[in-house]
Specification:
This protein is of the alpha/beta class. Helix content is about 45%, strand content about 15%. It has helices spanning about 15-30, 40-50, 65-80, 100-130, 140-145, 150-170, 195-200, 210-220; strands spanning about 10, 30-35, 55-60, 85, 130-135, 175-180, 230.
Length: about 240
């Protein structure tokens, strides 16, 4: 199995939900981590809670300048990158309820930033002899629930990108994986903390730590094993 001790890992969207839980799990496994978020206060809180060797950089991955600054920090703090865990994402309303700048921003965060980070990570991984790209997608790609037209489009884009990219770079010793979570306790869920906890207890929603554990499972497989797609749902996931 792959040991994560001292692995150089970039986690996008580490301020809340799945990203924050992943920071904690990676820090406990001994990885060296850089993460990012738009808001310095929540970023600092996530880094402090994670413990271990975790560095937070306040920036916006929706912009080219933000991604450039992020990888400058990766080079400076880590000296390279072994693994990318891309999970920064925003929820969205149906396309007809959103102004053009708003839905375009969701596309930039949820999809374009994944591509931009992957491109920069691939260049560094190839020079170092290999690596692993892991993208957090969603089962919205499959279930196509009402109200998720914009969000589902971004996650479907990630799925198609990842599965195609995997074929393009497998000979460079770079693995590509996608995690497809169902309903998870994140800021995207428009309900109170008490309602989220009740949903978790009822098997209708997952705790983010469940997804973080799955991410560690994928990252720690042997060098010759690539988990291409892993779908994770609560027991009573709504599918429509």
């Amino acid at each position: 199995m792959t040991d994560l001790v001292n692995k150089r890992i970039l986690v996008t969207g580490g301020t809340s939900g799945i990203g924050r839980a992943t920071l904690t799990a990676l820090a406990a496994a001994g990885a060296r981590v850089v993460t990012c978020g738009r808001h310095g206060d929540t970023l600092d809180a996530a880094v402090e809670a994670a413990g271990g060797d975790v560095t937070g950089i306040a920036l916006d991955v929706a912009t080219g300048e933000g991604v450039d600054a992020l990888f400058a920090a990766v080079d400076d703090r880590l000296g390279g990158i072994d693994m990318l865990v891309a999970c920064a994402a925003l929820g969205a309303d149906p396309i007809f309820e959103m102004d053009d700048p708003d839905w375009r921003y969701v596309l930039d965060v949820n999809l374009a930033a994944y591509l931009a980070c992957a491109k920069r990570a691939i260049a560094r991984m190839e020079a170092a002899g290999g690596g692993h790209l892991l993208f957090v997608g969603s089962i919205s790609t499959e279930i196509k629930a009402v109200g998720e037209s914009v969000y589902a489009a971004t996650k479907a884009g990630i799925q198609a990108f990842a599965e195609t990219l995997r074929k393009e770079i497998a000979d460079r010793n770079i693995k590509v994986s996608v995690i497809q979570p169902g309903s998870v306790d994140t800021e995207m869920q428009q309900c109170s903390p008490a309602e989220k906890r009740a949903a978790i207890d009822a098997g209708e929603m997952l705790d983010p730590a469940e997804i973080a554990e799955a991410i560690l499972f994928v990252l720690t497989r042997s060098a010759k094993c690539d988990i291409v797609n892993l779908r994770i749902e609560p027991l009573l996931q709504k599918t429509s």
